């Protein structure tokens, strides 16, 4: 028998703490008992009591979350959305000036490099989204170091090499790809674009770039796989759930749907404190403070922490055999940060690691991946182990010269996170396609100028990495940089909107 549709009025009657219903994607849910369990605090849900919560909910919650956390008996059924009165949004001057900035943003052709996307994204993204994407842990020292570490490596280019034809293609975990970079896993794609991660999938597909699908995507895993074209390669990033049955289900489903690698994130037994994210979320909740009891707001959480309570902090080396027993996909440890752990991974028969500090979002003052790489590869070569494991790195890669440096030092490939998120947030799919093209063009030019026709011709003899040990970029002693040199120019907005 078909269930009777609920009306907006039915839902609106349940707008209090004793009976709290909300609408999500045209369906009603009873969240009364769940209010106190919500990782982001009860207020975040309660402000939608009796109303449609879809707009606030969607970008920051993975789609399966309701099925996992809310008992079936609380799924109340469909709502006739024509009977739900749209909420009148109060005038928001900040949103008004953001809209002006969007209308006058630089054209895509005015973006010449990945930094340009970041500068535009900062101006056009919603604060909460910018806060989540751009934040790093604590004082954001590692975040900055990730980028500046590449400036401490200088090239030793080879000349008079015939570089008329340059081949940028390579393979990663046995899969062919057009370039040695991949889209790394970044959660909550819908904060940047209403379509979410599928935008990255389509752009990656057009360029023959591998995509790592995050556990905490805004689109469902299947939507992201469905968006791939032909034999486009995807990997799965896994946050290991305390409930191993859930983990097993996710892994085996991904393998069944053709994923070619399982990247287990090992640098996040607890999510780092990203204070910018926490502050934006807290300020966003400030208006609720007036309406509700301020003590009910969970002040310790940003978006990141609020969605990650399921991650198992007890995950350890002893779990590796378990993962090997549930999948045939190559298992990769993402977030390794020292030579000793790379050696241990080899002992455990792990075929690849990603040296990474999670984009500076976890342990602040953890070293950059490129610095660890410079330590790891000579040690592997010394022990004759360099062919036993593929080493990937991510964090702070913004130029193709960064990628070339990483490959020279022995990386098999390089993950890129924020730049593609920023390109997507500012310009959608076209933005990501353009960003990838810019990187490809830079890569080809960099290869020519360094004197290499293919990626296997890149080696440590082409770089001087002695400066990597210096962990601070020295402050200039003269005033040339502040008083004389021109600042790098950013792509211009058409109208001088309030920034
Ligand atoms: C917004 C954002 C979300 C992220 N989400 C995840 C995640 O869900 N799982 C994960 O293993 N790493 C995650 N990362 C880390 C990235 O996979 C990668 O290590 C990092 O972004 C690389 O640094 P980059 O952004 O400077 O390129 C995230 C990074 C960002 C910026």
TrEMBL record:
Residues 83-102 are annotated as: Disordered. Keywords: Flavoprotein, FMN, Heme, Iron, Metal-binding, Mitochondrion, Oxidoreductase. GO terms for biological process: lactate metabolic process. One of its GO terms (molecular function) is metal ion binding. Pfam families: Cyt-b5 (PF00173), FMN_dh (PF01070). It catalyses: (S)-lactate + 2 Fe(III)-[cytochrome c] = 2 Fe(II)-[cytochrome c] + pyruvate + 2 H(+). Residues 3-80 form the Cytochrome b5 heme-binding domain. It is an enzyme of class 1 (oxidoreductase). One of its GO terms (cellular component) is mitochondrial intermembrane space. It is found in: Mitochondrion intermembrane space. Its cofactor is FMN; heme b. The keyword ATP-binding does not apply. SMART domains: Cyt-b5. Its main location: mitochondrion. PROSITE patterns: CYTOCHROME_B5_1 (PS00191), CYTOCHROME_B5_2 (PS50255), FMN_HYDROXY_ACID_DH_1 (PS00557), FMN_HYDROXY_ACID_DH_2 (PS51349). It comes from the Eukaryota. Homotetramer. This is L-lactate dehydrogenase (cytochrome). The lineage of its organism: Eukaryota, Fungi, Dikarya, Ascomycota, Pezizomycotina.
């Amino acid at each position: 028998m078909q269930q009777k549709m609920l009306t907006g009025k039915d839902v609106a009657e349940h707008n209090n703490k004793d009976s709290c219903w909300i609408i999500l994607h045209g369906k009603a849910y009873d969240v009364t008992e769940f209010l106190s369990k919500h990782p982001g605090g009860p207020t975040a849900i309660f402000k939608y009591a009796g109303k449609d919560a879809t707009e606030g909910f969607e970008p920051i919650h993975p789609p399966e979350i309701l099925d996992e956390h809310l008992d079936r008996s609380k799924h109340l059924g469909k709502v006739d959305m024509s009977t739900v009165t749209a909420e009148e949004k109060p005038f928001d001057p900040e949103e008004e000036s953001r809209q002006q900035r969007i209308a006058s943003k630089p054209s895509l052709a005015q973006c010449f490099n990945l930094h340009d996307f970041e500068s535009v994204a900062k101006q056009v993204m919603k604060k909460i989204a910018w806060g989540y994407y751009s934040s790093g842990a604590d004082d954001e020292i590692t975040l900055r170091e990730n980028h500046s570490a590449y400036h401490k490596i200088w090239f030793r280019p080879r000349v008079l090499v015939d570089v008329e034809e340059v081949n940028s293609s390579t393979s990663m975990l046995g899969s062919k790809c057009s370039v040695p970079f991949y889209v790394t896993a970044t959660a909550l794609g819908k904060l940047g674009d209403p379509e979410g991660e599928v935008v990255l999938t389509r752009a990656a597909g057009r360029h023959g770039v591998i995509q790592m699908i995050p556990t905490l995507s805004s689109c469902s895993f299947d939507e992201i796989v469905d968006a791939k074209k032909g034999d486009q390669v995807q990997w799965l990033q896994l946050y290991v759930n305390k409930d191993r049955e859930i983990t097993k289900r996710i892994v085996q489903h991904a393998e069944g749907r053709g994923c070619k690698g399982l990247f287990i994130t090992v640098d996040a037994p607890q999510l780092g404190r990203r204070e910018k994210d926490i502050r934006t979320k807290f300020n966003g909740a400030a208006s609720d403070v007036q309406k509700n009891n301020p003590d009910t707001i969970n002040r310790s959480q940003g978006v990141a922490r609020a969605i990650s309570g399921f991650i198992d902090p007890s995950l350890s080396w002893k779990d590796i055999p378990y993962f090997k027993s549930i999948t045939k996909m190559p298992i990769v440890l993402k977030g390794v940060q020292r030579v000793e752990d790379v050696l241990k991974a080899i002992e455990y028969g792990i075929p690849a690691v990603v040296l990474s500090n999670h984009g500076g979002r976890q342990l602040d003052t953890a070293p950059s991946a490129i610095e660890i790489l410079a330590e790891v590869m000579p040690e592997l070569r010394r022990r004759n182990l360099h062919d036993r494991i593929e080493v990937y790195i991510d964090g702070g890669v913004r130029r193709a010269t960064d990628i070339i440096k990483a490959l020279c030092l022995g990386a098999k490939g390089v993950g890129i996170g924020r730049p593609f998120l920023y390109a997507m947030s500012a310009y959608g799919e076209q933005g990501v396609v353009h960003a990838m093209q810019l990187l490809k063009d830079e890569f080809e030019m960099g290869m020519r100028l360094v004197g290499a026709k293919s990626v296997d011709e890149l080696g440590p003899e082409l770089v001087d990495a002695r400066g990597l040990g210096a962990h601070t970029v020295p402050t200039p002693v003269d005033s040339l940089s502040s008083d004389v040199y021109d600042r790098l120019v950013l792509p211009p907005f058409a109208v001088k909107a309030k920034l």
